[in-house]
Automatic annotation (TrEMBL):
Residues 1-20 form the signal peptide. Gene3D superfamilies: Glutaredoxin. SUPFAM superfamilies: Thioredoxin-like. Keywords: Redox-active center, Signal. The keyword Signal applies. It holds the Pfam family Thioredoxin_7. The lineage of its organism: Bacteria, Pseudomonadati, Bacteroidota, Flavobacteriia, Flavobacteriales. InterPro entries: Thioredoxin-like_sf, Thioredoxin_CS. Coiled coil: none annotated. This is Thioredoxin.
Length: 170
């Protein structure tokens, strides 16, 4: 009897941990509504669990000094895509299609897009030559990143410098 109870508990725990990821459409609809209410833009970042540069960008954006700057200017949406077969369940349905629509499939991860509160694209991670900045770290990549942030936010020059120093220093 104890074995059956233990087995039943294990099955219940396994089932309760399996959750479908929210769809891209749902996440974006919620983000646009929040962005309109808070007078912000929407920063969409595509990532995968295997992507070291994605983790680095996530860490930098959540830095104790930078997180308030990003949060004051953007509603941030993280979409998981391009996972390995074993981890496909982590993907947000529709993320790959959005990535494809904005020419990000072959660009690599992380890939990011910035939309206004109405869903119009106002910035992306492609430089003038069409190369993905990803998680910017080189001086020229960080410069393009900061230009994009400047055009799509109310960040001050001092705040942009703080972001630039963090992204260049790691």
């Amino acid at each position: 009897m104890n074995f059956r109870l233990l087995l039943l508990c294990c099955i219940f725990l396994c089932i309760s941990n399996v959750q479908a990821q929210e769809t891209t459409e749902t996440l974006l609809t919620e983000a646009y509504a929040k962005a309109q209410a808070e007078n912000k833009n929407v920063f969409v970042k595509f990532e995968a669990s295997w992507c070291g540069w994605c983790k680095r960008m996530q860490t930098q954006m959540k830095d104790s000094e930078l997180a308030p700057l990003f949060d004051a200017n953007y509603v941030i949406v993280t979409l998981v895509t391009k996972e390995t077969k074993r981890l496909k369940g982590l993907e947000n349905p529709g993320a790959f299609e959005l990535l494809e629509k904005h020419k990000g499939v072959k660009a690599g991860l992380p890939f990011w897009l910035i939309f206004d509160a109405k869903g119009n694209l106002i910035g992306d991670s492609l430089d003038a030559e069409g190369n993905n900045l990803g998680c910017p770290s080189a001086v020229n990549e960080v410069s393009v990143f900061l230009e994009t942030l400047q055009k799509t936010s109310n960040l001050s020059e001092t705040e942009l410098q703080m972001i630039g120093e963090t992204f260049r220093s790691e």
